[in-house]
Specification:
single chain; alpha+beta; 5-stranded antiparallel β-sheet; 5 strands; 58% helix; 21% strand
């Protein structure tokens, strides 16, 4: 009986040591992945099937103006106006339903009330437990969209000026022909 007890204790000690090693490897792998995610400048997020954020990088937290702790476990409805959250939710539902990666341009109101235009790319994945999760990347394209709009307005203004000048030149030429 004592020999069996010693053998079981040795086996348990060995199992506990292996478990510690596996836990250290797992912790190291998690730290590695979080380090990689946090070095990416674009906001990255992962949502579960209930639309709750379960993984976020630092860029996402900065973009949202909230800490990771404030965001984790929450959904779009906790931070965005209802109309915007409805759009995000609908697009996420479509991804969970079809499994098809989607890319969209969407409007987003930040904490200060400023509206941004964002480009998002979202894909459906499976986590280690086989649960469906949504992984997404955001790119703030507000500056580009505003520049394109300013360029469009400048082009329209230039076209208007050319038409005005062309009309004035045509009238001046007509007057010159009449006077000759």
């Amino acid at each position: 009986f004592l020999a069996v007890e010693r053998e079981l204790r040795a086996s348990l000690a060995s199992d506990a040591a292996r478990l510690r090693d596996v836990q250290q490897q797992l912790d190291g792998a998690k730290a590695f992945v979080h380090t990689i995610l946090d070095t990416i400048p674009d906001p990255i997020f992962v949502k579960d099937e209930h639309h709750a954020w379960i993984v976020l990088n630092e860029a996402f937290c900065g973009f949202m103006g909230h800490s990771r702790e404030e965001l984790l476990g929450k959904s779009d409805y906790d931070f965005f106006p209802k109309e915007e959250a409805d759009v995000f939710w609908r697009l996420d539902d479509a991804l969970f339903t079809t499994g098809e990666t989607n890319e969209n341009e969407e409007s987003f109101t930040d904490r200060a009330g400023d509206v941004h235009v964002i480009s998002t790319k979202k894909a459906l994945c499976l986590d280690a437990g086989g649960n469906r999760i949504l992984a997404g990347v955001i790119r703030d394209i507000t500056a580009r969209v505003r520049a394109e709009e300013a360029l469009r307005r400048a082009h329209e203004d230039l076209e208007r000026r050319v038409q005005e000048r062309t009309g004035a030149l045509e009238r001046a030429n007509a007057e010159l022909r009449e006077s000759e």
